[in-house]
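Q: For a teaching handout, I want to show students what a protein-ligand complex looks like in token form. Below are the inputs, and the small molecule is pyridoxal-5'-phosphate. Please produce the holo structure.
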Amino acid sequence: MTYESTRGSKEKVTFSQAVVAGLAPDGGLFVPCGDVRFGENELAEMAGLDYCGLAFKVMSRYAGDFTEDELKDCISGAYKSGRFPQDCPVRVTRAGNGLSVLELWHGPTSAFKDMALQILPRFMVTASRKCGENREITILTATSGDTGKAALEGFRDVPGIKVMVFYPAFGVSETQKLQMITQEGSNVCVKAIYGNFDDAQTGVKKIFGDAEFAEKLAKDGKMLSSANSINWGRLLPQIVYYFYAYFSLVRENSVNFGEKVDFCVPTGNFGDILACYYAKKSGLPVGKIICACNTNSVVADFLATGTYDKNRPFVTTSSPAMDILVSSNLERLIYDASGRDPVRTAGFMRELAEKGRYTVGKDILEKIREDFDSGFATEAETTEAIAEAYFKNGILIDPHTAVGYSVLGKKRAVSNGNQTVLVSTASPFKFNSSVAEAVCPQDVNENMSEEDISRIISGKTGESIPAPLIGLSSRKIRFPDTVEPEKMKQTAEEFIYG
Ligand SMILES: *Cc1c(COP(=O)(O)O)cnc(C)c1O
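A: Here is the structure, written as tokens, with pyridoxal-5'-phosphate included.
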């Protein structure tokens, strides 16, 4: 399997090259050149595999130039070395009434990004060795909370790699901040910046775009890379858990083998949901893939109308990992739905950059709507969904998952009768204030610390607080500093050369 750019540069690259480069040289995203297809017999065999076995089976079809041992080492290093529950990194729970929940947040940072960011560093180390790349890599990331922490945990103490994370001083939750400023590891650095997420993101993009800086780094045997979800190495591991969820339902007789299952995915940068699309394309019996957005409904609106329009206010919500106006991975879907037409795809992306909007043709929209459905939830609906999920279905969910629950509630009024899996992307204890507001508002007040709130929720619901979130406030603070956005490059440089 080789990879090509969505924007048409002719050169085909290996899996390793795609992982090391991240972005294609023409600014496009790497996509597999061919389709992976699992036949019915093959699927039946896969149904009996454990998570790591399944991960190998799925990923080996895409990781073309990795040897069997290399891929197996990456998989077991990520999912079997004690950072996830030993038996299986994910959980599938029944919520009744044809609904199951796929919990992807049992890793070290209690958010679904661990599923990819625990394995991406292993891919990168293996891939750069295979490409003969021996420069020291610094992973540079701006985060609105979850990605930064997951990248820090994934890359910490990985030889030959450093990690630098910038986060907005007033744009992350108390828990997220504590998680980052107490980060352990000898190769990590975290700084807050005076500004919002966009300022952090813009600063990081500027550093990446600084040709002179890149040249200086290259001369000194160093390079920058990104842990951003545009990297194919981050998308690939996410395909696996859709298979796992489906086979779980088959094993417990909730569906017959071959029967279609719908998935509802809380969506921001369109990475998680795109992985579901790849699973479906490769033969997994998936019905509708439901894209759930928060008030920043730019993607849901696109899927409904065919017009992508980012000229709208950016709203800060209780599901910050989904607060987004430019959803990068959508480009991969558009490329596919246009019949792999790089000229049209590049054209839409140019319009987006120049005018902030584009409209796809009817052919593309119809193709997309064969697989996707969409909706969004307001803040009030999200709070309501947390309460309803708990009091009616007995499941405690975080605001991101609740956006999905709410959208699903609206869709199910016109249900096609399929079993549905709601993808749960963060532990409710990571966003405890919003959860308390919905489940036990009378028991909390604004003077309480986030840890107090977690204890109250736990006492009320009987759900236990994930171990990585316990005792955060008593850990040693290693990264207390906040810098001006103008100082980001200098700060990065000091760390890279330090
Ligand atoms: C990143 C994130 C999302 C959005 O996932 P995408 O792949 O960017 O669409 C949803 N929920 C949580 C908790 C996240 O951290």
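A: Two things your students might notice: The chain has 21 helices and 15 strands. Residues 111-113, 146, 229, 266-273, 321-322, 400, 425-426 surround pyridoxal-5'-phosphate (CB under 6 Å).
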